[in-house]
């Protein structure tokens, strides 16, 4: 039996309604999924940008901290160098003042002669040579000659050795030095400088740690001592 046209029409409408409903649900599902994916992607991008911003400012902060440390280190080094320079200048001043005091001591002929005798004897003991040439300031020539025999005897008593000494009367030590003598042997191949400046320089080098401690106190950072 044939289906009435009205029934066919009704069934067609039902199918259309079903398809529309399915389409609506699918549209809602697609839109919901799209919104979800959009929100996820938006959140990822936002977090990514946040991380970039955090990384940028962390790097900037680290650079600022590093620059601060470098500047502080530079200031500390400058202050340390300035202090060291002041101390070295002070030590130089002490040496200059001591040299002037030694220069003044040469005005006391008695004391200076004893000093010359000791300097000559010490130089002879360092050389231990049979023939020695002595140089001095021109103004000290006679003083050296006057103490020569005593110095030779003292050397012989100490070393049990004889020595022939010649005083150079042609070439003299510089007139502006504080005093003292210079001894040489073997045509100048062996040389002992016993000028007052040379002896003071030697003493300063040997005693510099003690001098620094005396002037500036003990240094807690010093690990080694001369």
If you had to describe this structure to a student in words, what would you say it looks like?
The chain is of the alpha+beta class and 226 residues long. 71% of the residues lie in helices and 10% in strands. It has helices at residues 5-105, 109-127, 141-159, 196-216; strands at residues 131-136, 164-167, 180-185, 190-195. A four-stranded mixed sheet has the order 2-1-3-4. Strand 1, helix 3 (141-159) and strand 2 (164-167) form a beta-alpha-beta unit. The longest helix has 101 residues, at 5-105. The N and C termini lie far apart (129 Å).
Summarize the model shown.
The protein has helices at 5-105, 109-127, 141-159, 196-216; strands at residues 131-136, 164-167, 180-185, 190-195. The chain is of the alpha+beta class and 226 residues long.
Order of helices and strands: HHEHEEEH
Task: Look at the structure and give the mean pLDDT.
Answer: 85
Share of residues in strands: 5-15%
Number of strands: 4
Helicity range of the residues? over 70%
Shape: rod-shaped
Q: What is the gyration radius calculated from CA atoms?
A: 50 Å
- pLDDT below 50 for ≥5 consecutive residues: which ranges? none
Largest sheet: 4 strands, mixed
């Amino acid at each position: 039996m044939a289906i009435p046209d009205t029934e066919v029409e009704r069934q067609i409408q039902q199918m259309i309604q079903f398809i529309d409903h399915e389409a609506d649900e699918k549209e809602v599902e697609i839109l919901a999924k799209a919104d979800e994916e959009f929100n996820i992607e938006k959140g990822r991008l936002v977090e990514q940008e946040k991380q970039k911003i955090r990384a940028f400012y962390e790097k900037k902060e680290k650079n600022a901290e590093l620059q601060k440390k470098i500047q502080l280190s530079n200031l500390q080094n400058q202050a340390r160098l300035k202090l060291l320079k002041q101390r070295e200048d002070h030590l130089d001043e002490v040496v200059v003042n001591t040299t002037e005091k030694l220069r003044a001591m040469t005005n006391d002929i008695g004391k200076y002669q004893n000093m010359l005798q000791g300097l000559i004897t010490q130089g002879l003991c360092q050389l231990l040579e049979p023939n020695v040439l002595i140089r001095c300031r021109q103004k000290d020539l006679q003083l050296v000659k006057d103490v020569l025999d005593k110095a030779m005897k003292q050397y012989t008593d100490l070393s049990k050795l004889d020595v022939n000494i010649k005083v150079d009367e042609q070439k003299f030590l510089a007139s502006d030095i504080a005093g003292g003598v210079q001894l040489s042997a073997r045509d100048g191949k062996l040389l002992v400088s016993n000028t007052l400046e040379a002896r003071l320089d030697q003493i300063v080098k040997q005693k510099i740690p003690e001098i620094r401690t005396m002037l500036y106190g003990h240094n807690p950072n010093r690990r080694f001592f001369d």
